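Ticket #4471: structure output looks truncated?

Reporter: J.K.
Steps to reproduce: submitted the chain below (67 residues) through the standard prediction queue, then opened the result file.
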Amino acid sequence: MNVPLNEIPWGAIAPILVLQLILMITALVSCIREEKTNGPKWLWILFILFISLIGPVLYFVFGRRNN
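Returned output as attached by the reporter:
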């Protein structure tokens, strides 16, 4: 399933990639600024970086500590 790059519908994929990047950056900034998280902060940063779309969502749902 090798599709040449010129046949990929970039108009449909680009907005999804931009939203994913914004979500990842927002989650990283939030994680770094938080004093305490549910679990080790370094582990949340790895989740955010390497589990692309689901990692930031998991951080916002489970990782942030509510006061």
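Triage note (M.O.): checked the attachment and the full token line is present. The two ends are 49 Å apart (CA to CA).
Status: closed, working as intended.
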